[in-house]
Amino acid sequence: MLIRRWISRVQPSLSRNIRSIHSFSTAIPLSWKTCHSQLNKTFATGLAYNSFSTSTHARSSPVSAFYVPSFNLFGKGSLVEAANQIKLSGYKKVLIVTDPGIIKIGLCDRAKDLLEERGSTVYIYNGVQPNPTVTNVMDGLKLIKEFGCDSIVSIGGGSAHDCAKGIALLATNGGEIADYEGVDKSLKPQLPLISVNTTAGTASEMTRFAIITEETRHIKMAIIDKHTMPVLSVNDPETMYGLPPSLTAATGMDALTHAVEAYVSTAANPITDACALKCVELVGQYLRRAVVNGKDQEAREKMAYAQFLGGMAFNNASLGYVHAMAHQLGGFYNIPHGICNAILLPHVQLFNTKDARAASRLGDVALQLGCQDHTAQAAIEKIKDMNEQVGIKPYLRFLGILEKDFEELSKNAAKDACGATNPVQPTLDEVKSIFAAAY
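and the corresponding structure tokens:
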């Protein structure tokens, strides 16, 4: 593989520093026992790390920025350690933001108990919808104001994390969530947000992206803001064991989409490339295992790393027209984001092969996925095969999409901020043609 030689050189030193709980910080060494107190200090003052701004969308500037939360936990036991860190950081009134599914499996109660045992008063907002809405954000914000919460813990996948970001951003910046659609529109850091991940796909627990559905216009607003990154992300494979096969498949293909779009993005750089390629490799190796056996600890943990790497890639290189189009489908029809991405991914990448650089890079994707031929076409066919292997239907018509809506969907996709870094900027007719091909 392209980056295996590099990994083989650094793996021995990494292995010496990683224990049963893995912490990742942008500023400090990995050795857990020797720097526990320093990690806590970094987490407690974590709001300071994102005071700067260099937009990856500013193509005229030669400056690149790399955004990642300053404190991230991985591995079994990470949820307990997160509760310890919340206590040490002095957060006393915590709002948990989650969805009914997390309530049903008891994970919310477990987190609540851990926090209350450590002295926090805990309130719960459990109304998050699969595609979180403006109403969800405002309902959660009411609880923040009513109870005077000093922090938020989101538990779930991208829906819970995105909703929590919207709540946290408005809690300190005011206004309406629509005011922050676009790139870096806020002026102040959001309320401290700790994101506990239960899926391996969205990477929303560590990104500066939040997608909120505007109900009246039936569109998804893309909020890309340095202030929306959590101060702590948590990826504990034990919280993912209960994820059903269909959701495992959808979120896993979402992770692959993040990596592929970031790799062919016009804002890609060597750091995001390394993250994207490793994500592609891990998804290719472990997604099907996680779908077949949700209790496969190795597969769950590897997919957690994969989706985080994909998040590191697109958090800094941004995305493309797969997401620009998928957001419209999710907002208009209220269907799962990961499924939309999975179906659109091969069709958008086929369109992107008009660009020689993108075509060459898709050949690299084929290599990471283990294809015999290292070509763009091989990568595209492999993605289709992966969809079939994990039970995702190949066409949009199976989701109830209507051809008559392609015009409006395409117009809205053209306005989506995620499309700015696609390697080829399509015309309106070309976007409609991609929808038609995926139909």
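(Above: one complete record from the training split.) Residues 256 and 280 are 6 Å apart (CA to CA).
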